[in-house]
Write a structure and sequence with these properties.
Blueprint: H1 5-20, E1 27-33, H2 37-52, E2 56-62, H3 68-79, E3 86-89, H4 99-103, H5 117-124, H6 133-144, E4 153-157, H7 164-173, E5 177-181, H8 188-194, E6 197-200, E7 216-219, E8 223-225, E9 228-230, H9 235-238, E10 244-245, H10 252-271
Parallel strand pairs: 1-2, 1-3, 4-5, 4-6, 6-7, 7-10
Antiparallel strand pairs: 8-9
Length: 272
């Protein structure tokens, strides 16, 4: 089964449009620190979805030579406005900036990515209002395709802030047996072959080339080579072996953006 993320996103957008009708004006702002065409292109995708949902979307481009103090003050001034319902800091930040310090500059009630320490704390203690979008995507896939994660072996490649960390917690709440593969992990192929579910978000071309028969393969990673996007999972090699597989592009990406706006609407409801 090949997941068609674009088709699913269209269905989700129709549902979100109905929720959107409850509100008057909605505004989402995004901060892009430094010149980065790849990060800017992803923000433009989010902007297109905003247009479909009649959400104002503004990108603030900031020179990476700005001081830490001035950047924090600049972000604070914008996001604290009553006209702003949600805010994004496009990651990764330039190396000189401490990422969590700036993520915490977004108030929890406007943190649509669920990356501030306060929102993450609520998520990891299971007292959340919103969850990280990646968790919403996996949970959506689980419910839509009636998948069962309880007592399943789940292999997650990487332990990053956006993908690995929140999904380890999510799958543990599903009573799965969770394995985390790192770059230093030996015999990676063995763990891939015994796993019922494989989720990857590392961003390296085709690092997943093995899987168990009828495994569930969910790919959040992407890598550009010669202007072509590739996923972590070798889609062509594994599509006939997997029970369910997400392609790259056109798999989890469109759904992920929808979940960002799902969070925005939840937070906007609280702000009312």
């Amino acid at each position: 089964m090949i997941l068609d993320g674009k088709k699913i996103a269209e269905e989700l957008l129709e549902e979100l449009k109905k929720e959107r009708e409850k509100f008057d004006r909605l505004r989402l702002v995004a901060f892009l620190i430094g010149e980065d065409k790849e990060k800017e292109s992803f923000l433009r995708i989010k902007q297109k979805y905003a247009e479909k949902l009649n959400v104002e979307f503004k990108i603030y481009k900031v020179d990476e030579n700005i001081s830490r103090k001035k950047l924090r003050k600049y972000i604070n001034q914008i996001v604290k406005s009553d006209l702003v319902n949600g805010a994004i800091i496009q990651l990764p930040l330039p190396d000189k900036f401490k990422t969590q310090y700036f993520l915490n500059s977004i108030p929890p009630e406007k943190d649509v990515d669920c990356l501030s320490s306060r929102n993450l704390g609520k998520f990891y203690t299971d007292s959340y209002i919103i969850r990280p979008p990646v968790v919403e995507v996996v949970d959506f896939i689980k419910n839509k395709f009636k998948l069962e994660f309880k007592n399943k072996i789940v292999c997650i490649t990487g332990y990053g802030r956006l993908i690995g960390k929140p999904l380890v917690h999510y799958f543990c709440t599903q009573k799965s047996t969770v394995i985390v593969i790192r770059k230093s992990t030996e015999n990676k192929e063995y763990f891939l072959k015994i796993s019922d579910v494989i989720v990857s978000g590392v961003g390296e071309k085709h690092i997943i080339n093995e899987c168990k028969e009828n495994a569930i393969l969910i790919d959040f990673g992407y890598y550009f080579e010669n202007n072509t996007m590739y996923g972590d999972i070798n889609f062509e090699k594994l599509k006939d072996t997997a029970y369910l597989i997400t392609p790259t592009p056109g798999g989890t990406g469109p759904i992920l953006v929808c979940m960002l706006y799902k969070n925005l609407l939840k937070l906007a409801e609280l702000q009312k």
